[in-house]
Amino acid sequence: MSMPLSATVRVTLGLIAVALACLVFGDFEISAHEPWRELGRLFLGLVQPDFSSVDFLGEAILRTVAFAFVGVGLGAAAGLLLALLFQHLWVRTFCAFIRAIHELFWALIFLQSFGLHPITGVLAIAIPYAGIFAKVYAEILDETDPEPARILPRRTGHLSVLLYARISQAWPHLVSYTAYRLECGLRSSAVIGFVGMPTLGFHLAGAFAQGHYATVGALLILFYVLIGTLRLWVRPRLLPLYLLAAPFCLGTGLPIVWSNVSRFFSHDIVPAPLRRGEGLEGLLPWFGDLFVQQALPGIWNTLLLTQMALVVTGVLAMALFPLISRHFTGRLGGTAGHVVLVVMRSTPEYLLAFILLQLWGPSMLPAVVALALHNGAIIGHLVGRRSNEIALRQDAPHGLDRYAYEVAPRVYGPFLALLFYRWEIIMRETAILGILGIATLGFYVDSAIQEIRFDRAMVLILITALLNIGIDILARRLRSYLRLRHTINRQSC
């Protein structure tokens, strides 16, 4: 049973009203010199890519794949163990916290202790992914049929029950979701290159800085091919070989100075007043100044950008889903639409925002466009697949009437569920885009790290995590209020 339409309409109009109000405070100025000329040069680089540096491009792709496999593999293993304990509140809280912190924030934390060592990139991917895996694995295991466990002998051990009655049922879903997270891991692996790890993002940033758009085009095309052909080269029989070989392809990096590691976790991240022995009398003014001067402006801009990106994402998703819906396109058109959506959703928000910032200059516009394109393509793809399950009557109207009166109303509930599910993820990405110069929480985190004020950076990262958790709670309550019982496709995570 679903809520009356008026409730859905009220929530939808409320989100739109908030986003329109945010427009008043947002900065959408295009300040770059001749932005359309630069966009044309980028397009020319995409259609005329330079693959001459084969060794350099091959190494970038190899490092990207290696970090993805190792990070996702460790995250999946840890996530499965946490999923088995997910009924405990402390485990759920811990997983919510670690997944609320973006991979780039984790990378920035570990860079200060481990430096440019492969362990920095691996942990930056593995830790948040462990929290995500734990949540989704637990949901998958909870949805298994309890009957097989009941018919086992009474003395059957807990491990045997788990293996033969629950994991055996859930195995296809666990494998399917893990394969999707590997695709996400490739995107995360590329992105951590922007903070110095030797993956695709590192070389992409360098090529952009030098204006080598042909090299940028080659890197982007190789990345899209890598994502698009994932199912062809990641075969179950080859997976153990990949997992064994990946750690040896990470490179060596700079040696770890363990004294720096110890100093960072025992001294550098401790608030300055506590290091000086000032106690609460010094800590409260210190925190108050940090909160007013940096946290509050960062929270304000993060919320502004998130709400605008959320609504634009929704509009774009509802406009894009017909591209792959059999009710609006034929086989050829559906294939072309699928390719378009794959390219859009395969491009990480951070990477797309970086490109647009180079072309349009620093403002909220590149961030909103990047977030909306990526997340709108993901939701549009899932809603389009959902629409293919709808059977229309033979005399159903065509064109715009079919969209407005037959298909859109039937997929709107699942669409809202997916949009609310992505809300927390959009918030995570919004915060991290501050590293690119937009004044969200990530901007102040990056500034604190550049000033070697790691204690301030850690507090701001904790605030970011709490903000993400709050948005997740709000989104779940809205889904409950609207009774959106649609089972979220696991790949929407």
Automatic annotation (TrEMBL):
GO terms for cellular component: plasma membrane. Gene3D superfamilies: MetI-like. It is a multi-pass membrane protein. Keywords: Cell membrane, Membrane, Transmembrane, Transmembrane helix, Transport. InterPro entries: MetI-like_sf (IPR035906). It is found in: Cell membrane. The chain crosses the membrane at residues 60-86, 215-234, 241-258, 299-324, 425-445, 457-475. The keyword Repeat does not apply. PANTHER family: ABC TRANSPORT SYSTEM PERMEASE PROTEIN P69, PHOSPHONATES TRANSPORT SYSTEM PERMEASE PROTEIN. This is Phosphonate transport system permease protein. It comes from Franzmannia pantelleriensis.
